[in-house]
Specification:
Elements lengths: L7 E13 L7 E7 L10 E2 L2 E3 L6 H13 L8 E2 L5 E8 L4 E12 L12 E7 L12 H13 L2
Parallel strand pairs: 1-7
Antiparallel strand pairs: 1-4, 2-3, 2-8, 5-7, 6-7
């Protein structure tokens, strides 16, 4: 959706969570590709992520979103925060062509169960970190990945 197609801006900040899942060797990351049924532009890649629902903690939302978008089950204790894991940006929502300010807290997933599967809105894909540059991605995805890998290197 082009910038000139934005119809209006919704006031307030949307609180969201995202989950970083890496391959065992940290060379691949699990991203989801959005379909036309998603609220994000079709074909754009993002972390398994979504809004925090009323009454939900950030970790509860992260476990729910990871399962909904990838089929992977995670325990809250297996989600960890890392240095510089909080991001803000403006995003265009395809339903209604609205501009939203979003804040995302990103968690790293230490362990999970299940097999990767998609749904009608998202297709999960393991992407080589070295190949991320050319992908059409949601804001701050590269920064979240780099911040995690840097924090991991410093521990």
């Amino acid at each position: 959706m082009a910038e000139d197609e934005v119809r209006n801006e919704i006031p307030g900040t949307m609180q969201t969570v995202g989950v970083l899942v890496f391959s065992e060797d940290n060379k691949k990351v699990l991203l989801v590709k959005h379909s036309q049924l998603a609220q994000n532009p079709e074909g754009i890649y993002g972390l398994p992520a979504g809004q925090i629902e009323l009454g939900e903690s950030p970790k509860e939302a992260a476990t729910r979103e990871l399962f909904q978008e990838t089929g992977l089950k995670v325990k809250e204790d297996d989600l960890e925060q890392f240095e510089n894991n909080f991001f803000g940006s403006y995003i265009i929502r395809t339903k209604g062509g609205t501009l939203r300010h979003a804040q995302m807290r990103v968690f790293h997933c230490n362990a999970y169960e299940g097999k990767v599967r998609g749904d009608e809105k998202t297709t999960p894909e393991w992407i080589e970190i070295a190949e991320l540059t050319g992908l059409n991605k949601m804001p701050n995805i590269d920064l979240a990945i780099n911040n995690y890998l840097q924090a991991e290197k410093n521990t």
